[in-house]
């Protein structure tokens, strides 16, 4: 059964789109990620124009993040003050990212830049996650204790000026690295269509030394508003959000996430990280192959703008 996507301007098999949404939702529920870094490459693989894939994929992130953020808020594991500072940086970064997105589109280099960014980020993050999880699995097999950092251990980030106290997170930290992190994630959201949680969560834990129990909920809080803002501005500026495609992906994603949570609860943390690392690397390699392999149709017609 085919359905026409008005903004993407092509007909697609609705069951394939439903399958993509359900699969990404399943993985989101199992691994606890927004899924934007997976749905955008999948849409590109299915010949959805990257301009539409990036802008529409952000909706999947919003849908999968709202329920998680509400749950963390109810449990008291969401730092609203820290999330607001992240959000300020994120909104500024997303605004600049929209201009970069539009500029690259006018130059005709948007497809190439998006693919290159995904190859770099997915290859780096996937490789680091896989290496760390394999070390954890080896330690578990040998019954070795996990090396822990001493409480209160600081790095150069904690010596920066303009400090602010975040009572929920129990930290006293400069707003400069927090705004910079939000700013960078905002740009990635606009240009790549990702929520950025796969970068923001490790950065908050290992660089800013924010307690793990508030990191996920605070990250989701920032992601919701940054991606929602990006989607609205993309629709108004570049007319690249396909509401039909977004609706199908969101419905399927919500259903798939319910089953993913059940499966994820049966696996250990290091096993989940290893599987996610392999998945991220596989998507990155697939995109890299697309960049170097000679296409079937060497010449194509495209309309710019």
Automatic annotation (TrEMBL):
<feature type="transmembrane region" description="Helical">
    <location>
        <begin position="272"/>
        <end position="293"/>
    </location>
</feature>
<feature type="transmembrane region" description="Helical">
    <location>
        <begin position="214"/>
        <end position="232"/>
    </location>
</feature>
<keyword id="KW-0812">Transmembrane</keyword>
<protein>
    <recommendedName>
        <fullName>Probable membrane transporter protein</fullName>
    </recommendedName>
</protein>
<dbReference type="Pfam" id="PF01925">
    <property type="entry name" value="TauE"/>
</dbReference>
<dbReference type="InterPro" id="IPR002781">
    <property type="entry name" value="TM_pro_TauE-like"/>
</dbReference>
<dbReference type="InterPro" id="IPR051598">
    <property type="entry name" value="TSUP/Inactive_protease-like"/>
</dbReference>
<comment type="similarity">
    <text>Belongs to the 4-toluene sulfonate uptake permease (TSUP) (TC 2.A.102) family.</text>
</comment>
<feature type="transmembrane region" description="Helical">
    <location>
        <begin position="12"/>
        <end position="45"/>
    </location>
</feature>
<feature type="transmembrane region" description="Helical">
    <location>
        <begin position="110"/>
        <end position="131"/>
    </location>
</feature>
<keyword id="KW-0472">Membrane</keyword>
<keyword id="KW-1133">Transmembrane helix</keyword>
<dbReference type="GO" id="GO:0005886">
    <property type="term" value="C:plasma membrane"/>
</dbReference>
<feature type="transmembrane region" description="Helical">
    <location>
        <begin position="239"/>
        <end position="260"/>
    </location>
</feature>
<feature type="transmembrane region" description="Helical">
    <location>
        <begin position="171"/>
        <end position="194"/>
    </location>
</feature>
<feature type="transmembrane region" description="Helical">
    <location>
        <begin position="82"/>
        <end position="104"/>
    </location>
</feature>
<keyword id="KW-1003">Cell membrane</keyword>
